[in-house]
Protein: HD family hydrolase
Organism: Rubritalea spongiae
Amino acid sequence: MNPLTTRRMETKLDQLQQRIDFIKAIDALKEVQRKTCLFSESRYENSAEHSWAVATFALTLADYAPSGTEINRVIHMLLLHDIVEVDAGDTLCYDEEGSKDKAQREQAAADRLFGMLPTKTAQHFRTLWDEFEAEETAEAKFANALDRMIPVLHNLDTGGKAWIENSVTFDQVIAKNQKIGRSSPALWNYLLPRIQRAHQDGWLL
Amino acid sequence: MNPLTTRRMETKLDQLQQRIDFIKAIDALKEVQRKTCLFSESRYENSAEHSWAVATFALTLADYAPSGTEINRVIHMLLLHDIVEVDAGDTLCYDEEGSKDKAQREQAAADRLFGMLPTKTAQHFRTLWDEFEAEETAEAKFANALDRMIPVLHNLDTGGKAWIENSVTFDQVIAKNQKIGRSSPALWNYLLPRIQRAHQDGWLL
Ligand SMILES: [Ca+2]
């Protein structure tokens, strides 16, 4: 075998090893605990199983995305959206203090983790993650809407467990989640009366 | 509002409720324990977080699929492939006894769980799951290859923890996993020498 062929094969093998090392590194997302419980309330959920649930939610609710939305880009974003938490941890969206340096911590995490991959894939994944974070495209807006909707459903189902534990108020829930309606009016029309009822019933203050 | 419009809106709301009920039902996949550990070995993994890992693995290894493979259908299959375990539990692929009635238990689970969805989505998801199980299309073969590859990587990384705990032999590992190479020779060329070394080093008998 001539040296060039050998080098090419090594590079291809190196690139596979880089991808496998990335998968091993992000396995740690299974150990990042969120503030939200399982629907069974048996324990808190982790960010890896949450990522599966919300990506599957996107596949299940594809018809509720604005027309023209590329649902596969939504799914790709949701598979990758929490990976930075391997380094940066999960920050509750209502946590003003923790949210201050969140962007900086997550940027550093994205640099390190996506940087483990071969250049083209690293750029592809980083672009998807940046798009999700910027919330400007139809795909990013819908992905963020679903990511917000899941914890609201958990709270509505568990008598506001995470809301109560974290002293989250009705006004905060509305302020943080009403943008769901700008991506998908049907989803917000489903959630809003349920959030209002929780407030009227007194377990969301 | 005329009665027809009202009926249409109710139907649309019912369909959304069906989708949300499905998401709540499959949340139980987070409580199905697999025989494989996290890479950190801190605990066994569950089928929900495994589904996230293998779907993300597909996105990361898209270049290793045979040309013409629709990677998004692979990802859809992998998001849905284990959902039946909510009712049927996880069966180790080396478990001959448990594998006997596995197909029957999983068919019943697929009927119940996908049957929670509006008809069109139920049929779509069931078709994807049937395709994954049949392992005939390029997409199903690649999805199955990745689903097999992840536990092999776990075992290679943990000194064969799950293989030893379940008395799995070298011959069984080769027999069950060599079809990875029929979907993606590059992936099998990566795994095979590592499995052989584990055998030579004596921790895979
Ligand atoms: Ca998050």
